[in-house]
Amino acid sequence: MEDVLKLKRATYNLWTFVTSKLISSFGAQVYVFAISFYILQQTGSATSFATNLLCSILPRALVAPFAGYVADNYSRKTIVITAQVASTFAIAGLLTVSLTSGISLIAIYTTTVVLSITSTFSGVAFSSSITGLIDEKRIQKAMSMNQMSISVAAIGGPAVGGLLYGTVSMPVFLIMYMIASIIAVILESTMNFKLFAKRKKVVEGEARESMWHSMKAGFAYLKLQPIIMALLWVSLLINFLFGAFQVGYSFILIEKLKMPSHHFGLTEGAFAVGMLLLSFYLSVRKEVKYPFLVSKRGILVFGVLMGSIGLPLMVQMEYGVMFGFYLAVMFSFGATMIIVNTPIMVMMQKIIDDDYKGRVFSIMETMAMALMPLGIVLFGFLYDLFPAEWILIISGLLLIGVVLVLARPSVVRKAHPELGKAKAVSEQ
C-alpha cells in the first residue's frame, strides 16, 4: 500500500515538475526574446549582444561549484524555491527601473547576471533531485517530459515575443515573466523532494563538511568515474566552439539578413519543435542502449549544421527559400540537441551517487561553461571584423575534429564495454 502511495506521489511530482518548468520557461523565453531583439535593434552590435550572453554564462561558471556544495548539504527544495523567489525580485527590479528612469544596457546586464546566478542554484538543485522526486523506472520519461515542457515554452515564447514586440512596451514583457515566476514558486512548494531520496548527510543529520573539503571530495569521486571525466573534456571544448552559433545565429538573421521579428521568432520556434518531437519520442520508447555513442554522433551532426548557418550569405536565395532553410536547420538543431543531451543525462542520474550529485553536476556545469565566456567574447569581436559565414564553417569543422579526437572509439568502448564484445562476436 505504501509503495502504491509513493508511486502516486511520484506521478504528482512528475506532472508538477513538468508544469512548473513549462510556466517558468515560457516566461523566460518571452523575456529573452524581447531583450535580445531590443539590444540588437538599439545597438546593431554583435559585441553588445555577446556581452549580454556573457553576463548570462560567466556567473554560471563562477557560482556552479558553490551551488553544488549547497545542493549536497542543504534542503534542495528550499534552494529551488529561494532561487525562484530571487528571480522574481530581479525582474521586479528591472521593471521598476524601466518605469522610473527608462531601461538601459547596464540595467539589462545586471538583471541577466542575477537571473543567471539564481537559475544556476535552481538548476543544480533540481538536477540533483530527479531521483528523489521520481521512481527510477521513469527517469528517462521525466527527463524527456522536462525537455518537452521547455520545448513547448521555447515554441510559444518566441512566437508570443515576435507577435508582441513593437506593439507592447518592455514592462509588459517583464510583468509576464514575473507572473510566470510566481506561479512556478507556488507549484514547486507542493512537491516532495525526499520521496525516493537516498541522501545520507542531510537525512541522517551528519556534520557538514567545509566547502573546500566538500569540493575536494567531489573531485576525488570524479577521478573514479572515467566516463564522466571524458564527458567533461568534451563539454569544455564544444561549449567554447558553440559560442560561434550562439552569437552568430541571431547576428546573421537580425543584423545581416534583416529578418522581421515574427519570422525570427518562428525560426526559434522550429528549434523548439525539433526538441519537442524528439523529447516525446524518448518519453515513450525504452531507454537508449548506448547513450555515449548516440551523443557522439549527435555532436558530429551539430558541426555540420553549424557550418550550414552562413550558407544564405554565400548563396543567393529568395526570401521564402531562405526562411524555409532556417526553419529546417533550427528544427534539426533542436532534434539533435535532445539526442545528445537526454540519454547522457539519464545515464548520469543512474551512475552518480545521490550524495555527490550536486557537486558532480556543478563541476560538469563549471567545466562546460569554463571556456564559453571566452568563446562568446571572442566570437562577438570576430563577427564584427570578419565574414560571418567563414567563422561558422571553420567553427563547425573544429567541432567535428574535437569530437572525433576526444570521443574516439577507445573512449566509447570504456563507456560501453558491451560494444567491444558485440564486435568480437560479429567478427567470429
Task: Note down, in words, how this protein is organized.
- There is one protein chain.
- This protein is an all-alpha fold.
- The protein has a single domain, classed as Up-down Bundle (Growth Hormone, Chain: A).
- It is built from 19 helices and no strands.
- It has helices spanning 2-43, 46-73, 76-100, 105-133, 139-164, 170-188, 201-204, 211-223, 226-241, 243-256, 261-284, 291-308, 311-314, 319-351, 357-370, 372-385, 388-406, 409-415, 417-427.
- Helix 2 runs antiparallel to helix 10, helix 9 (226-241) packs parallel to helix 16 (372-385) and helix 12 (291-308) runs antiparallel to helix 14.
- The protein starts with a helix and ends with a helix.
- The model has no long low-confidence stretch (mean pLDDT 80).
- This is MFS transporter.
- The chain crosses the membrane at residues 12-40, 46-67, 79-100, 106-127, 148-168, 174-197, 218-242, 262-282, 294-315, 321-340, 360-382, 388-407.
- It is a multi-pass membrane protein.
